[in-house]
Sequence to fold (249 residues):
Amino acid sequence: MRETEMRLTEISTALDSVRARLAAACLAAGREVSDVALLPVTKFFPASDARILYELGCREFGESREQEAVEKVADFDGAAQTGAIDDPVRWHMIGQLQRNKARSVAKWAYAIHSVDSARLADALDRAALSALSDGERTKPLRALIQVSLDGDPARGGVPTGELTPLAERIESAEGLEFAGLMAVPPLGSDPDEQFEILRRAHLLILESHPRATELSAGMTGDLEAAVRHGSTCVRVGTALLGSRPVISR
Fold:
């Protein structure tokens, strides 16, 4: 019990700190705090940590490993069935995804932030349509294109000059809803420069896809820069849960 209480205090303090950082970043950028969502990233950490964040008011979580996410979704579903939690939770897939995992992700994800090819978009579209038909979801899967800011295919993402065809592909998919763009600046780069590139790419996409308003950008180390350049969702893990993965459940 004492260990659980200590973890609750630790996460609560961290969450207050991150929320304060986000509020200060919005103030400095002349933006409303309500314009930028905080997405806690719970990958590598146990479902118990996500449950603590839920108790502290969080209702959306980011995961990057399909199997780990499935286990946490099942944990929350079980808690909902017993009445331990009563508000719905939205799960976001934020990591790179193989096409053979599309069917699983379409069952539990509210949104995926890492669509980086037409083949993946098509696989997700088929999977989401199947999930809609089977009653496993009630709305299309929200899809964000992952933008490559350095052109390195190993890191995933679509170069800024090649976004339009994929955006049109997603926009026309019945099982998907084109929500916007996501990016991670290359290590060692200037985040302000990289997020400005992303912002300009987003403005161009909005000209032909005005509903794709989401810009998923910014993490623990660069959320302030991301907010300055229009991020609508910062994905924060380390500053909330720590740098060492917790293995035990």
